[in-house]
Amino acid sequence: MQHTRRRTIFRRRLSATTDYRRRLRLLKSGMPRAVVRISNTRTTAQITTYRADGDIVVATVTGNDLSSRYGWPADFSKKSVPASYLVGFALGKAALAAGHDEAVLDIGLAASTPGNRVYAALRGMVDAGLEVPHGEDVLPDDERINGAHIDESMADKVEACRTTIEEAY
Questions:
Q1: Would you say 126 and 117 are in contact if contact means Cβ atoms under 8 Å apart?
Q2: Backbone angles phi, psi at 41, to 5 degrees
Q3: 42-80 in b/e burial notation, b at 16+ Cβ within 10 A?
Q4: What's the CATH number of domain 16-168, 3.30.420.100, 3.40.50.150, 3.30.70.20, 3.40.50.620?
Q5: pLDDT higher for 9 or 93?
Q6: pTM reported for the whole predicted model
Q7: Is the pLDDT of residue 15 over 80?
Q8: Is the pLDDT score of 80 beyond 90?
Q9: How confident is the model at residue 120 (pLDDT cuts 50, 70, 90)?
Q10: Complete edge-to-edge strand list for the sheet that includes strand 43-49
Q11: What would the pLDDT profile of 44-79 be if each residue is shown by its tens digit?
C-alpha cells in the first residue's frame, strides 16, 4: 500500500477565496470583524462574529440598500468611493445600534491600496463612531469622499444620503 506525502489543501484556499493565515489572525483578536467586499456591481459591508459552527452576521449593508432605503439615486454607482463611504457609514450606525462599538477590518483578498473603496468604507465606519484600528494615511481625502472626482453636484447627494442614514438610526 502506497501512502502519499501530499498535504490536503483546503477547498477555499485552493480556489483563492480565503487566506486562512490572515483569517486566523483576525479571529485571534476576539473582536467582531468589519467585512468589506467590492463586487462588480456594489459594495457590501458586514459586521460578523465568530462561532465554531459558523460566523454570525450581526449587521449588513449593501450598495443596493443606499437607493432603496437611504435615497441614493438609483442610476448612480453602488460601488464608487462615495457609495462605499455611505455603505460604511450606514454599517457603522447599524453596528452601534446592535450594541457593537468596535471591530477589526477584514478586507479579504482585496488589494490594500491607500484611498481605495475598501478604505472609503472604513472611513464611513469611523465617521459613524465605530472603533476600528487603522492608520490615518490609508483613508481617502474629503474630495474623493464627496465625489468631486466624479461630478461637482455629487457632494450634495452624499450629504443628503448621510443625513437620511443618521435619521434612520
A1: no
A2: -120, -20
A3: bbbbbbbebeeeeeeebbbbbbbbbbeebebeeebbbbb
A4: 3.30.420.100
A5: 93
A6: 0.88
A7: no
A8: yes
A9: very high
A10: 56-62, 43-49, 33-38, 104-106
A11: 999 999 999 988 999 999 999 999 999 999 999 999
What's residue 11's pLDDT?
79
Give the strand pairing for 56-62 and 104-106: unpaired
Residue spans per domain, the chain:
16-168
pLDDT band (50, 70, 90) for residue 1: low
Q: Which of 145, 140, 166 is nearest to 71 (CA)?
A: 166
Closest to 132 (Cα-Cα) out of 98, 161, 81, 91: 91
Cβ neighbors of 123 (< 8 A, separation 6 or more) are 85, 88, 139, 140, 145
Q: Are 47 and 91 in contact (CB under 8 A)?
A: yes
